[in-house]
Design goal:
The structure holds two protein chains of two kinds. By secondary structure, chain A is mainly alpha-helical. Chain A is built from 21 helices and two strands. Chain A is globular, with a radius of gyration of 22 Å. By secondary structure, chain B is mostly helical. In chain B, α1 runs antiparallel to α2, α3 runs antiparallel to α4 (about 100-115) and α4 (about 100-115) packs antiparallel against α5. The chains are: A mainly alpha, B mainly alpha.
């Protein structure tokens, strides 16, 4: 109790509070700009922390992380361009909602879910951090493989219009993910001697091309039919969710947050995988709801947003308690621990008992600030959206281009964006799911590498996938996610 | 239907090429990594071919027509789309010659005119302010080393970012 009181004193002093405000706002702004990831925002803040005390410094970085994860949803909803990888799944239903004139509601859902996820994970972490951290270490390749399969289960909902085409799109995404150096044995694959292909194809530039630029092409086609201003109808301002509406969808809030927290704890999984899995779970469970998933279902925003923010709290647990980063961004924060003079690991919690509590209290304060910061950034984006389409469309293209370039400061990513803008256009015309393509591309590495690692660990045997109870349970859930739509269709047809 | 079948054939060629390349990957004699670097690509390649075959048969059976305005230049939207794709391609090429600031200003000015947009004063302000915002945010605030172009453009860019 004494420690909690001391933590409150440290967090709620004027300096730390102002750092929470600055960090959250800066994170939201960076997150909302395509190409500027949360890790980049944290790195930019790092020099300011050198002369700070450890707690304010870490609090600043964690709130930037939290703000960034939420900011990504703003451009995902308004421009169909996820600002951060964590916001990919938010695009699936957020953008259709915005197109239907409900941009404000979609933004409100995203911010409310983000705040809920962050607060939920903060409380869980406060209560059970060391216990959960050691449990996360039991995750091995077989379990990661199962997680990847559950993520792929999303295609049963996002490709609802044509399942076979969605499966082909996901397979093409998996094929693209194999380009580059094989991380198991270091062999070059499909790089044709080109150095820029050795690191593989960055899914953010694919996404900017296939989602944002392809959407501009689609709107250009419709320009003469004058229906390109759908999203700018009315005033765009964030509409907060009513408590009664939240209560109706409590299960999605809760499941998204639980999944996010748990996946965040697993080393190197991160918020983007958490959000895809939470989306897959929600879309499978509520697939008969109208509007359907992919057409602007509110749960399609709540699930990924609550999980990607909950994953932040989760990812801080192994980072601090075990010294193993829970996500790529947590790895940057871990580096900042070392710069400040703290060594993450079991001793850190013992030597700095206030630090863990202070971080999670700061997360709660930052989550509440998301409402104000989100409203501010949204209002700035709304100005852009009021432009006539010839100006808006060209600005989105220029923003997408600089976003793709900023990823690695490379023209190659811009070229990839351009190619995939055409791929996205044709995919849309022939009813192939672009989202499924991205899904395959993101999860490809995780699925292939964990599959092969488990086989190597099992000395060539596949028994590891069934002999480990946790892995078996996850794989069974994944298989059910895949075949459930077919089974329920069969049952419905028998019933009728 | 025909155009979708052609699209499927292009996809098929891509998958066959991918599979061929996957088969060319050297096999390391490893008794534990039984899949090796080529195993996973081969599995998904074969699966993709099978699914594509199924889709193509269905496409032929359904015989639905798909409108692609990009290939119908008699339509104004087809011409507009093609012009904008070409403008984007030119913008990307010009980035390395004129640098980010100049090529973005030009692109933001020229692309809207392809729509028939003719409020010149607003367009001029939009292209300059738009490019300035992008350069300031990405180039000056976030230190992204934006393309500077060559020759005089390179020298000039140092004055801006």
């Amino acid at each position: 109790m004494d420690i909690i009181l001391q933590s409150i004193e440290v967090v709620f002093n004027p300096l730390t509070l102002s750092l929470i405000v600055i960090g959250t706002l800066f994170g939201i702004i960076c997150g909302s700009l395509p190409g500027l990831s949360s890790s980049m925002a944290i790195i930019l803040c790092l020099p300011f922390t050198y002369s700070m005390d450890p707690i304010p410094a870490i609090v600043l970085l964690v709130t930037v992380y939290l703000g960034g994860a939420t900011g990504g949803s703003i451009s995902a909803i308004l421009l169909k361009t996820p600002g951060t990888p964590e916001a990919i799944a938010t695009t699936f239903d957020g953008y259709p909602m915005a197109q239907n004139g409900m941009a404000g509601k979609a933004l409100g859902l995203a911010v409310t879910a983000s705040a809920f996820g962050a607060i939920f994970s903060a409380f869980i972490m406060l209560l059970a951090a060391p216990l959960l951290a050691s449990a996360a270490l039991s995750f091995q390749s077989a379990e990661y493989f199962g997680l990847g399969l559950i993520g792929l289960g999303c295609i049963t909902s996002i490709g609802a219009r044509n399942q076979m085409k969605a499966i082909l799109a996901v397979l093409i995404g998996l094929m693209i993910s194999t380009i580059g150096i094989d991380s198991i044995n270091g062999m070059e694959r499909f790089s044709f001697g080109q150095p820029f292909l050795l690191n593989g194809i960055n899914y953010i530039s694919v996404m900017i091309g296939a989602f944002a630029i392809a959407e501009v092409y689609k709107n250009i086609e419709r320009y003469y039919q004058r229906d390109t201003n759908l999203r700018t109808k009315g005033k765009i301002s964030m509409t907060l969710m009513k408590f009664s509406d939240m209560a109706k969808m409590w299960d999605t809030f809760l499941k998204g947050s639980i999944l996010g927290t748990l996946i965040g704890i697993i080393p190197a999984a991160g918020g983007s995988i958490a959000s895809l899995i939470a989306y897959g779970e929600a879309s499978g469970r509520h697939k008969d709801e109208k509007p359907s998933f992919g057409d602007g279902n509110p749960r399609g925003i709540i699930a990924p947003e609550s999980s990607n923010n909950a994953a932040i709290g989760g990812s801080m647990v192994p980072t601090m308690v075990l010294g193993i980063p829970g996500s790529p961004v947590a790895a940057v924060i871990m580096a900042s621990f070392l710069i400040i003079g703290l060594t993450p690991g079991p001793l850190l919690i013992r030597e700095q008992p206030i630090l863990l509590n202070a971080i999670f209290l700061a997360m709660i304060a930052s989550a509440l600030l998301l409402f104000i910061g989100g409203r501010f950034v949204t209002s700035q984006f709304a100005h852009i959206l009021k432009l006539p389409y010839p100006l808006l469309g060209t600005f989105i293209v220029a923003l997408g281009l600089v976003g793709a370039y900023s990823l690695n400061n490379s023209f190659y990513d811009v070229f990839v964006m351009f190619i995939f803008s055409l791929v996205g256009y044709f995919f849309d015309k022939f009813n192939y799911s672009t989202a499924a393509l991205i899904l395959g591309l993101i999860l490809g590495d995780l699925i292939e590498n964990s599959l092969r690692r488990q086989i190597i660990v099992g000395e060539g045997s596949l028994m590891g996938f069934v002999s480990r109870p946790l892995a078996l349970a996850i794989i069974v859930v994944a298989i059910i996610t895949f075949i459930w739509p077919a089974i329920s269709k069969l049952l419905n047809s028998k019933g009728s | 239907m025909a155009i979708e079948v052609i699209f499927n054939i292009i996809l098929g060629l891509f998958i066959v090429f991918y599979l061929y390349q996957a088969m060319q990957l050297p096999n390391i004699d490893d008794t534990v990594d039984i899949l090796g670097a080529s195993g996973f690509p081969q599995i998904i390649g074969v699966l993709a071919l099978m699914v594509l075959l199924f889709i193509t048969i269905n496409t032929i059976k359904e015989n639905k027509s798909v409108q692609l305005s990009l290939f119908n230049l008699k339509l104004p939207e087809g011409r507009l789309l093609l012009v904008n794709i070409c403008l984007l391609a030119s913008y990307i090429v010009l980035l390395s010659i004129l640098g980010f600031a100049v090529s973005t200003t030009l692109y933001l000015f020229i692309a809207p005119t392809s729509f028939g947009y003719s409020k010149w004063r607003l367009l001029t302000v939009f292209s300059i302010v738009g490019a300035l915002v992008l350069v300031s945010v990405f180039g000056s605030v976030f230190y992204v080393p934006l393309p500077r172009g060559i020759g005089l453009f390179r020298e000039l860019s140092y004055l801006v970012y």
